[in-house]
Amino acid sequence: MKTRYWLALAGLGAVAAAPPASSIFAQIGVEIQGPLNDLDSLDKQDKDLKTSEDAQVFANEAEHKQRARIESEVTQVQMDANEADQMRQRIIDSGCPPEGGEVPVELANRCNPQIDAHRAKVEEIMQRAKSLKEQMDQVNELRDNISATVLANVQKRKQIDADRERLTAERDRLQTLAIEELLKRTKLGAAKACTSECCHRVIYDGADPKLCGIGLICQSFQNAGLFGSGVTICGTGPSSTPVQEAAAPAVTAPPVHKTKAEWEAEYQAKMAAYTQELNKQQQAVTQYQADVAAMEKRRTELKAAAEQAQAAWERAVAACKAGDYSQCDRRP
């Protein structure tokens, strides 16, 4: 008799040792705060990144407009430089010596004003060319900054998406665990808290909570106080607050009853479509990075060639102004 009494006490002790529901939900509530807080932080990062992305679009448009304006003015400077060359040739054709030197007074009186006018025109063209070069350098610097920021934003976007996928999976795992633990204890209480037919299918048909929205079901149970007082599992921040289901219309068609296999097949099809779209976006990002790299390489080559041509032209103009008219027909 003593032995049986001892066994009965042992059985009661085993039952008493099982963790109460409140402690399980409290533990999940503590563990899930990390992913929920990190998801809220990602929302802020996402918002800041979107602001930067929009700013780069605006800056890119401004850069294109400035570049087009400068290139148009460079064309005009080139036309004026050609006109200055023609002016110089007319001076030479009129009998003014291209090399300068000692000449009769009459010839000097006729040639010097024309030469002075030519030099003034060349000086004015040089000033405009210098100003446009400085402006183009600024535009190129802006382009460099835009390209660097865009590439950095692409990396940030990839990191945010990867972090969001990881944290969302962890959040969904813990919320699903809370739902499963609750259904082990009180299906009736869970059914009363449900706000949709899909939620009832999770309870009674064993449907995957993902098909209905884990956050929606979790929030319904939390709002009903089924996880215990003061326990937050579903969260209240931007990332964790589920979108409320739309109110049903006054007249609705009969609900479509699907088997668990059908719901799972539909879910797999949606996930496949999502994965396909995600792959397309990743391919677009890769192509964009390649295009940016090719554009930067071409821009660097054009910039180097333009600087070399500009430097050669400036040396020729300086020599022309110094009296070496053989350099005056050089083109930039």
Distance between the termini: 114 Å
Rg, Å, rounded: 39 Å
* Morphology: rod-shaped
Number of domains: 1
Number of helices: 7
Q: What's the helical proportion of residues?
A: over 70%
Helix/sheet category = mainly alpha
Query: Using DSSP, what is the number of strands?
Result: 0
Low-confidence stretches: 1-18, 237-256
Report the major sheet: none
- Averaged pLDDT: 78
N-to-C SSE series? Answer: HHHHHHH
Précis, in short:
With 332 residues, the protein is mainly alpha-helical. It has one domain. 77% of the residues lie in helices and 0% in strands.
Q: Can you describe this structure?
A:
By secondary structure, this protein is mainly α. The chain has one domain. Helix content is 77%, strand content 0%. The chain has seven helices and no strands. It has helices at residues 2-17, 21-93, 105-185, 187-193, 197-204, 214-223, 260-321. Helix 3 packs across helix 6 (214-223) and helix 3 runs antiparallel to helix 7. The longest helix is centred in the middle third of the chain and has 81 residues, at 105-185. The chain is rod-shaped and about 120 Å long. Residues 1-18 and 237-256 have low confidence and may be disordered.
What's the structural blueprint in terms of helices and strands?
Elements: H1 2-17, H2 21-93, H3 105-185, H4 187-193, H5 197-204, H6 214-223, H7 260-321
Helix pairs in contact: 2-3, 3-6, 3-7
